[in-house]
Design goal:
Elements (H helix, E strand, L loop, with lengths): L11 E14 L2 E14 L19 E2 L3 E9 L2 E7 L1 H4 L19 E10 L4 E8 L13 E10 L2 E10 L4 E11 L4 E10 L24 E10 L4 E10 L3 E13 L2 E12 L17 E11 L2
Antiparallel strand pairs: 1-2, 2-3, 2-4, 4-5, 5-6, 6-7, 7-8, 8-9, 9-10, 10-11, 11-12, 12-13, 13-14, 14-15, 15-16
């Protein structure tokens, strides 16, 4: 902070309020789900050159309340606030806290979505989405996401494709999950997206959109979980994209007692094009290689 001589911890406390309902009807199960988050703490960043916008961000404070989920579902039809099917249907990107060192898609959106489960391992989804922030639709044409999945005892194969209606770009991801043993599960995921139109005159997205948020056209993610016993598990994720961004995240999660989990995580980022003119700084890194750690105490009930 100030002249860069002072450092401190990034600290955050969160209370998450979840509500859900469900009842059987002649048209299927009627469900609702909401999730609201309240946060207190400071913001992680480099404040050596402070501006009016970030001058107080290093100070602990009450942050904005966020509505992360608020949807209604009848049978396979879901409407409301959700996270994009581009991420939820394919299963995100591992069981680490910092899973977006190389991002794999935007999250917040309103949806009109239909999910189909054949009951034999095959499932599919179609989702009309609004996006968020600069990625919000600017016409009557929604973003569109579609996906298919085949799940068996050995694991699953999943594919999703998304159309960004703002920039008329397409992105897709394919994921393979393997249950190697009762203790070890592995995954690998690849993404590819077009980006010819992302250098918009009014909003420069840095080559990133609602769905193709990685740098360049392609990216890969891989990792897994190893369960040492009922209480302790080790989680790993590695990621890399065409923009030469390498991310590695690893943690150990320990269930002290039922409902109380302590997670210790180490994260590494190498921004390979940090010194290049076309570098798109997703993580706000202030140097080419960064190393950090997180310690999380979580009570769920």
């Amino acid at each position: 902070m100030g002249d860069g001589d002072n450092d401190t911890y990034y600290k955050n406390t969160r209370f998450t309020l979840k509500t859900w309902t469900g009842q059987e009807t002649e048209l299927g199960t009627l469900k609702t789900y909401t999730e609201t988050r309240f946060n207190f703490g400071n913001s992680s960043n480099d404040y050596s050159d402070q501006t009016a916008d970030n001058a107080d961000n290093w100070q602990a404070r009450n942050k904005d309340v966020t509505l992360n989920f608020a949807w209604i579902q009848l049978g396979g039809l879901r409407v409301g606030k959700d996270e994009s099917a581009f991420d939820t249907f394919i299963g995100y990107a591992g069981n680490v806290i910092q899973d977006t060192l190389v991002p794999y898609g935007g999250f917040d959106t309103n949806v009109v979505q239909y999910y189909f489960d054949a009951g034999n391992g095959f499932s599919a989804v179609v989702s009309l989405e609004e996006g968020y922030g600069d990625y919000s639709i600017d016409s009557y044409v929604p973003h569109v996401v579609g996906g298919v999945k085949w799940t068996q005892g050995w694991g699953a194969v999943t594919g999703v494709v998304a159309y960004d209606s703002n920039y008329e770009e397409v992105a897709g991801k394919v994921r393979l999950d393997v249950n190697a043993t009762n203790e070890l599960s592995l995954f690998i995921m690849g993404g590819y997206g077009s980006d010819d139109n992302y250098q918009d005159f009014f909003v420069d997205t840095g080559g990133r959109g609602m769905y193709k948020q990685w740098s360049g056209n392609w990216a890969v993610w891989g990792g897994g979980t190893y369960k040492f016993n009922e209480k302790t598990s080790f989680n790993l994720q590695a990621s890399y994209d065409e923009g030469k961004n390498l991310g590695i995240a690893a943690n150990v999660a320990y269930d002290v007692v039922p409902g109380f989990t302590v997670t210790a995580e180490v994260d590494y980022l190498n921004a390979g094009k940090f010194d290049d003119d076309d570098f798109s700084n997703w993580t706000n890194a202030d140097k080419k290689s960064s190393l950090g750690g997180l310690l999380r105490f979580q009570r769920s009930f």
